[in-house]
Amino acid sequence: MRLIAVGDNVVDYYEDREEMFPGGNAVNVAVFWKRYGVEEVSYIGIVGNDEEGEHIVNSLAQEQIDVSRVRKVFGASGEAVVTLDEQGDRKFVGSNKGGVQKELKLNFTESELAFINTFSLLHTSVFSHLEKELPLLQQYIDISFDFSTRYDKDYLELVCPYIKFAIFSGGDLTNVECEALIARVHQLGTPNIIVTRGSEGSLFSDSKQLYKQGIVETEVVDTLGAGDTFVAIFLKEYVLSGNAEEAMEKGAAAASETCQRFGAFGHGKKRAKRITIG
């Protein structure tokens, strides 16, 4: 199986620990794919020419992910400043809005499109600035797209016609709101929809049936990356088998493991505190 993640990366800087961890939705999904048995995983994204960018790329390489098509450019890599509350829930207190990634966009050459075409699924996100590339990319590969909490009508209309899987963070939505969102996204042409709901578990609709999955109870150290873990493992299992219930169960079990460590997937590196970014 070959899967590819394209787009956002970041270092999550834990102020209380003076430690940075690699992350970002596309990066996290790539790592969890590899850790949970996907034979070949590639990542394409943009990093800055700084310590943070180097740490992101080195961490991915250590996870045996192909990073040969990562662009390194002059400027700051993406950074988010994070604290943890007493329950281990992450709280973002600032960021540099993606650093160089918000200034530059990924352009794909013919050879890269041919390369992308050799994979089973491409995963990207609302933080990856790839919306205008989706009509092109979907001619080469099925796409999964993480909207986070972006539910507005215009954005859904921009993205949904071109993707196979839509993923939303719905922890602040009621059951009724989740089901209304799912119906709206199906109407816009997306056949498969995942809604993660934090401690409430997750929902999945394949256009025919709505599936529900609870969380797996665990000792929580840090919830950062748990939702991305669920999504990664669900996508991998569902693409392989088409069995939604089994894919959701495996995703929930993997997410509980992520909650037991700091950072989305580890690779912490000590770094002096800087001025908090806005």
Gyration radius from CA atoms, angstroms: 18 Å
Classify the helix fraction into a percent range.
25-40%
**C-alpha geometry:** globular
Mean pLDDT: 95
Q: How are helices and strands ordered from N to C?
A: EEEHEEHEEEHEHEHEHEEEHHE
Structural class: alpha/beta
Present the secondary structure layout.
Layout: E1 2-6, E2 10-14, E3 19-23, H1 25-35, E4 40-44, E5 46-48, H2 51-62, E6 71-73, E7 79-84, E8 90-95, H3 110-116, E9 121-125, H4 134-137, E10 143-146, H5 153-159, E11 165-169, H6 175-187, E12 192-196, E13 202-205, E14 210-213, H7 226-241, H8 244-258, E15 269-270
Parallel strand pairs: 1-4, 1-9, 2-7, 5-6, 9-10, 10-11, 11-12
Antiparallel strand pairs: 2-3, 3-15, 7-8, 12-13, 13-14
Helix pairs in contact: 1-7, 7-8
Provide a brief overview of the structure.
The chain has 278 residues and is α/β, with parallel strands linked by helices. The protein is built from eight helices and 15 strands.
Q: Could you please describe the fold and organization of this structure?
A:
The protein has helices at residues 25-35, 51-62, 110-116, 134-137, 153-159, 175-187, 226-241, 244-258, and strands at residues 2-6, 10-14, 19-23, 40-44, 46-48, 71-73, 79-84, 90-95, 121-125, 143-146, 165-169, 192-196, 202-205, 210-213, 269-270. With 278 residues, it is of the alpha/beta class. It has one domain (2-264): UDP-N-acetylmuramoyl-L-alanine:D-glutamate ligase (3-Layer(aba) Sandwich). The strands form 3 sheets. Strands 4-1-9-10-11-12-13-14 form an 8-stranded mixed sheet, sandwiched between helices. Helix 1 (25-35) crosses helix 7 and helix 7 (226-241) runs antiparallel to helix 8 (244-258). The model has no long low-confidence stretch (mean pLDDT 95).
